[in-house]
Model the fold of this input.
Amino acid sequence: MYFESLYEVFFMGGHGTYVWSAYLFTSSVILIMVWLPMARLRRSIKRLASKFKAG
Done:
């Protein structure tokens, strides 16, 4: 294994802050890119369903 301890996994020789913040940022962007279209689709379906019931 490359790392000797869990401490080394988190701090990576002083680069851990950069590495883990990059992972966090990238994961957040991907989650937002998945969540927003799904939320918009649900909203559109509800709006169309209410128009269909009213009309």
